[in-house]
From TrEMBL:
Keywords for the protein's UniProt record, in alphabetical order: Isomerase
Protein name: Aspartate/glutamate racemase family protein
InterPro entries: Asp/Glu/hydantoin_racemase, Asp/Glu_race, Asp_race
Cross-referenced NCBIfam families: asp_race (TIGR00035)
A matching Pfam family: Asp_Glu_race
Keyword Repeat: no
Top-level division of the source organism's lineage: Bacteria
Family (UniProt): Belongs to the aspartate/glutamate racemases family.
Keyword Cell cycle assigned: no
Length: 229
């Protein structure tokens, strides 16, 4: 089994899900006492969030690139960036290491295409919904990506940072997300990408009339498949 480097802490709430899911999947596939070979570098998300808010993405990229080189030096053979938003700086990370980075956009797009869908709604942080780094990656796989309107984007973003990243899961916020999902479906979305790794803590397939694509689980499944090959 390859040693998988997890670059996480953005937030640690979802990185804990990466760790749990990875070990559950290895146990399911290998049986017995088998568990995942993982190396985790967990950053201080307060520092990363400050760089995001101040539009200092180059510095954020340098910070994560340095962490990634540490994972490679520790023996990691595959790199998993445990966040959608920070894939904005994926090129800086890839330039700093010689091991492959498993891009969350490619994994998600493959799942959507395998389901036979082309038109999807995207729920994510404001950065991910409004900037092109993930939407364009998905579009490169032939997908049409719809995002909520400005008011709905503000709600989705606020819940992620003010609640989910701080371990708060609210029924009111779940209802609000269901309404946003409903409006995306009404606008023509055939499926919904849960494009922030914390969103899976709040909503799942039961909250949507169309297929949902949970990026955390999809990312982990692809990583474990690669690790066990």
């Amino acid at each position: 089994m390859k040693l998988v480097g997890l670059l996480g802490g953005m937030s640690w709430e979802s990185s804990a899900e990466y760790y749990r899911l990875a070990n559950e999947l290895v146990r399911e596939r290998a049986g017995g006492l088998a568990s995942a070979r993982l190396l985790l570098h967990s950053v201080d998300f307060a520092e990363v969030e400050r760089l995001q808010a101040e539009d200092r993405w180059d510095e954020a990229g340098a910070l994560l690139a340095e962490a990634a080189t540490g994972l490679e030096a520790g023996g990691a053979q595959l790199l998993v960036l445990c966040t959608n938003t920070m894939h904005k700086v994926a090129p800086a990370i890839e330039a700093a290491v010689s091991i492959p980075l498993l891009h969350i956009g490619d994994v998600t797009a493959a799942a959507v295409r395998a389901a036979g869908l082309e038109r999807v709604g995207l729920l994510a942080t404001g950065y991910t919904m409004e900037q092109g780094f993930l939407r364009e990656r998905l579009a490169g796989h032939g997908l049409t990506v719809l995002v909520p309107d400005a008011a709905d984007r503000a709600v989705v973003h606020r819940v992620i940072y003010d609640e989910l990243c701080q371990g708060i899961v609210s029924d009111d916020s779940r209802r609000a997300y269901r309404e946003v999902i409903g409006r995306l479906v009404a606008a023509g979305a055939e499926g919904i990408i849960l494009g922030c790794t914390e969103i899976e803590l709040l909503v799942d397939q039961t909250d949507s009339a169309v297929p949902v694509f949970p990026t955390t689980r999809l990312h982990v499944e692809a990583a474990i498949t690669a690790a066990l090959e």
